[in-house]
Amino acid sequence: MSTLKVPFAFDINHNLIKADEAKKDQQYFCPGCEELLILKKGERKAAHYAHKESDICTQEKIIRQAAKYCVKNAVSGWKNSGLKAPVLIRECQACWGEFDQALPEKVEAAEIDFEFGEHRLDIALMENDGILAAMVIDIGQTLDQYERLSLGIPHISIDGWKVIDNPSLWKVEIDAFRLFVCKKCKMSFRRFQEKVLRVSEKTGIKIPNEYYRYSVTYCWKCRTEFIVFAWPGHGHQTMDKPKKEPVPSTIQDRFSKTAGHKYWANICPKCRMIQGSFYLHGEPGAPFCNIDCEDDTVSYQKDMYRIAYYSENACFTCITGEAAPDSDYEIDEACTKQPPALSRWV
Predict the structure, then answer these.
(1) Side by side, which strands form the sheet with 109-116?
(2) CB neighbours of residue 152 within 10 Å
(3) How many whole angstroms separate alpha carbon 22 and alpha carbon 18?
(4) In Å, how far are 138, 158, 340, 342, 345 from 96, measured between CA atoms?
(5) pTM for the full model?
(6) pLDDT 10s digits, 213-234
(7) What end-to-end distance do the CA atoms of the chain give, in Å?
């Protein structure tokens, strides 16, 4: 006999049945190749299905097909039998924490092996016969196919082994659904926006609503608090000219003695000193230390949430290495902040 693991099997009605729930007088079939299985159910060993040697069936096919039907049945049980909605475990795109999110009510069914244009989707989440989203079953291999596809619809991959263990709890591996941000980070963003507005009113620096990422920092020279910007093509190693007009007044093409050439940089509105790209992008605690800065709407939203998160987890001392101007201490004792996800980007 082969060592293929068969956690579920089909009965004659194509229902998925666990081995410990199977009956000896019934026939059961492999989810991967639909060959007849042998039910092993005794007193000494745990109940299991035995799979005959096969040249066409693989562990990948078995787990993938079983997981597909687990998802389909979980959605069907939710919509038709009053069971709880399946839950996605998603990663917040600001703090990287994992959070539960129930499947939206508008999902009406899950169809497996769904033909979509030139693609055959593992699972399609449906509403009124129309497709809402695509899903792929990840069984521990490198599954970047959905990242390469231009499906034009939201899509995710989920851990197939974990789906089999708990069919109503789906661990998301690749997430191309609508941007997910936890409640705490949404509140952080609101507080960040309030802070930026105060600094904007104080300095007269206008806040853009697209393309330019923005944050608040302190000038390394005069310690003035003001708004700085990042844009696609501008970072620690790149300093391209902004492509979006109007260009904020504090972004100028200036000569840097340190760099030995001219480049587009943020300028302090008070002392007119260049705020270097490493100061703004490269150091831990820097305003733009952990952003992608790609030229698309989703990247912009993701970057702004991350900027707000790290802004709230850094203070004057984190950024400058010195005590705050209004502090009575040599080292700002209020500074107990080290971003929880620091290890992700150092």
Answers:
(1) 98-102, 87-91, 169-176, 155-159, 130-138, 119-127, 109-116
(2) 9
(3) 6
(4) 20, 17, 9, 11, 12
(5) 0.78
(6) 999 999 999 999 999 999 998 7
(7) 49
